[in-house]
Amino acid sequence: MAQPIAKKLLVVGGSGFLGLNICKLAANKGWETVSLSRKGEPEIFKEHGKPDWAQKVQWASGNSLQPESYKDMLNGVTNVVHSVGILLEQDYKSVVQAQSFCDAARRVPRLILGDQGNPLDPKLKENPRPTYTMMNRDTVIAVADQVAKLPTIQSFTYISASDVFPLISPRYITTKREAERYLFRKDEFKTLVLRPGMMYSLQRPSVMPIAGLLQFVNAVTSPFKSSIASLPGGKYLTANPLQTEEVARAVIAGIENEESGIFDIEGIERLSRTMII
Prior knowledge:
Largest sheet: 7 strands, parallel
Shape: globular
Distance between the termini: 26 Å
Order of helices and strands: EHEHEEHHHHEHEEHHHEHEH
Helix content: 40-55%
Number of helices: 12
Number of strands: 9
Strand order of the largest sheet: 3-2-1-4-5-6-9
Strand content: 5-15%
Radius of gyration: 19 Å
């Protein structure tokens, strides 16, 4: 009887908050785990030390839009998770990564005003500012095209989104849907799409008050959920915020269970509870 192929997981965006949780769970399961990001090893390790599980992960530096930068690490990859994306085309991460709500509030005006710095900066020629099309769609297409060539590839998990957020460009969600459709046209692997709403983590204290507020709104409006969800932006207000750890568990469970298709917020919650510990 043929032995099952040992798992080798490639996490595109593995140094982000969600990516870190995915890498942690995979490494603790004994999977060979490779994180691909521009920075390589996460900055948080320099500040708080490198945990034991992180020693088991290969923290590779590369550009998902440039296959030459990561082709050497693709050999034997069985499963891919794509957790790269941007909510705004401005630098919103300086806000969500703030260490307090007050610190985040001080950074909001620059974000709202869309301060993009000096457009004539020569550095922009080598490193253009990220756009929805580039980050939410094109990175998916580039990686999918490369891993589709692998004889070992089994699945591709894409972290999409439930709906467009209030005050956010519609291109945020349309580029994600375009990426989804592209993946489902691929026959070389199973496609699993997770569509969470807002995600929060204790490592992002600035986001916790917003998550708490949304949870309160969800509880109060639950009898009218269907009516509110049908309104413009209403789906976001009725969407339960998810912890990054919960979404990560759903990712791992989806790979273990060989799932495919689209999982909304309730589906993610159910899937996360099936992860084998």
